[in-house]
Amino acid sequence: MRYELYYWPEIQGRGEFVRLALEEAAADYVDVARTSSKGMSALVRLLDDSKVNTPPFAPPFLRAGKLIIGQTANILFFLGGQHRLAPRTEAGRLWTHQLQLTMADFLVEIHDTHHPIGSGLYYEDQRKEAQRRAADFLQSRAPKFLGYFDDVLTRNASGYLVGARLTYADLSLFQIIDGLRYAFPKAMRRLERKRQRLTTLHARVAGRPRIAAYLASERRIPFNTQGIFRHYKELDE
Amino acid sequence: MRYELYYWPEIQGRGEFVRLALEEAAADYVDVARTSSKGMSALVRLLDDSKVNTPPFAPPFLRAGKLIIGQTANILFFLGGQHRLAPRTEAGRLWTHQLQLTMADFLVEIHDTHHPIGSGLYYEDQRKEAQRRAADFLQSRAPKFLGYFDDVLTRNASGYLVGARLTYADLSLFQIIDGLRYAFPKAMRRLERKRQRLTTLHARVAGRPRIAAYLASERRIPFNTQGIFRHYKELDE
Fold first, then answer.
1. Three-state secondary-structure class, residue A62
2. Contact: A151, B55; criterion CB under 8 Å
3. CATH classification code of A90-235
4. pLDDT tens-digit readout, B195-210
5. What architecture is the A3-82 domain classified under in CATH?
6. Which residues in chain A are closer than 8 Å to B97, comparing Cβ atoms?
7. From CA B183, how far away is CA B188, in angstroms rounded?
8. Which of A2, A21, A36, A131 has its CA 20 to 30 A from that of B228?
9. Is the ipTM of this complex over 0.85?
10. Percent of chain A residues past pLDDT 70, beyond the cut
11. Euclidean distance between CA atoms A187 and A184, whole angstroms
């Protein structure tokens, strides 16, 4: 079975967390909206299709046979079970998912550094508020979240977040660190200094053969100022 | 086995979504931090306990035997399986969880109407930004989310969100509608007018014997301006 991933074709965004899992699993998938303009129409059509019983609120969503699965963390929960990217025990699956949901919370706060007033408004129309929010984020929130994940790595001797093997949570943490380095290069140098386990985890994931091949390929969309992680010099203080 | 729920004792907050599920299931549970000041210390101690292998990032978390489960949607996923508050099929469990995660996204946006700059700052220090954000929320975001859930109810003939029976997603949607009515009474009258299925769902959940008994009891903490749903007259336009 070939998976169909539906996500915006121009950004990494939330879809990237799913792409990383599919790539690490060497799963057979097509990134529908990136294949052609027809693919993009198919995405929009599916969002509006009144015959779908389980309509997604927003991309990304994954078609897996008869299933249409929405919500990034939910898709990863499903893929984790299919491709051994999560433990098999109930306790292990819940814990991996819990970490993923905490990253989802973190991601909203990262996004809102440049869009504190409204996701439908331009950055330029909320720049002043963004400066206040980004300052608070870098001073209070980023240290709290990054400290938490560093702490989880400290409690688990393997260097991975969960158990002895890589899970989708490690792939997602890699992506968050990678994105934060792009968005806030100056602040991240400071933030990683005392949290070397994060730096090591990032390098370890980036060095996995399938991930390394993916990152070097054209399938990896470069970071840009349309996505969740955005670099605006004035916010990186 | 008696569940232990750990959550802040003064607010409904995210803990309320778990409380509603436990109440509907008539589960044996103790709301630890509300029992005594010792309970509150136990919550704080558990958050900081370096011997816990699966530390929660924040309350709520649930102790179920040896498991400590964090993240509201993750707790509900677990309880749904234990107490038949979700379908048994994989497709049904994923769909119910997907709806819950969309409500989690909605909840962050509801919270941020009064805290657009920083959750650690006072409302009074971000009142101006809150007015801009709340206006955008009521004009664009609340209609989009409420319209989505109304649409899901339209596609499912039972009057519940998923299948033929009540799930934890219905309990959570009840809570969101209830909270929005408290926070934005004026706007909600307008928003519910064309979305009668939401009004009906709310009444149906409120009328279930165990939920009705719970809402009338002292276990239900009243809404207040410390929680996620807050009523500030100037934001309700």
1. strand
2. yes
3. 1.20.1050.10
4. 999 999 999 999 999 9
5. 3-Layer(aba) Sandwich (3.40)
6. 71, 74, 77
7. 9
8. A131
9. yes
10. 100
11. 5
